[in-house]
Amino acid sequence: MSEKIIRHQDLNIYKKAFEAAMQVFELSKKFPKEETYSLTDQIRRSSRSVCANLAETWRKRRYEAAFVSKLNDSEAEAAETQTWLDFAVRGDYLTPEIGRALFKIYDEIIAIFVVMINNPADWVLPSGLRGRN
After folding, report:
1. What is the 3-state secondary structure (H, E, C) of 31-63?
2. Cβ neighbourhood burial of 64 (10 Å; 0-12, 13-18, 19+)
3. Cα–Cα distance between 129 and 71 in angstroms, integer?
4. Nearest to 49 by CA among 90, 1, 106
């Protein structure tokens, strides 16, 4: 954390999750039409939710319990995305190599969330700054 983090978009975890979600979006364009309202929609929604929940998390860092709760939501969405990746591979919509690569990225994202959850004091605003951000 050598760079100053002002917005959630400045977080490396956000950048990683956003890029992963964009990869999922691009790859899911090739999913079959019959998956439009099921797998395609679900994997896009969960991958994007990782970023959306992280944005909410960042704004709730005034309160440790709210911060950790939203981090748990982000972690859960990342795990859900992994489940949809498994279905996409098993359905032959993604190659096993691409599925493994994306699954690994989401493993890394989840690991970072776990570290943040276990160390909220490193992220939560000190009480004197709570009224300013």
Report:
1. CCHHHHHHHHHHHHHHHHHHHHHHHHHHHCCCC
2. middle
3. 21
4. 106
Q: Which of 12, 15, 17, 6 lies closest to 82 in space, CA to CA?
A: 17
- Read off the pLDDT of residues 37-51 as tens digits, 9 standing for 90 and up: 899 999 999 999 999
% pLDDT > 70, the chain: 93
Cα–Cα distance measured from residue 70 to residue 68, given in angstroms and rounded to the nearest whole number: 5
Cα–Cα distance between 117 and 69 in angstroms, integer? Answer: 9
Q: At what angle do helices 64-90 and 12-28 cross, to 10 degrees?
A: 30
Residue type for position 4: K
CATH number of the domain that residue 114 is part of: 1.20.1440.60
User: Could you list the residue range(s) of the whole structural domain that residue 108 is in?
Assistant: 10-124
Contacts of 42 (CB under 8 A, 6+ apart): 80, 84
In a domain, 1, yes or no: no
Q: First and final CA of the chain: distance in angstroms?
A: 19
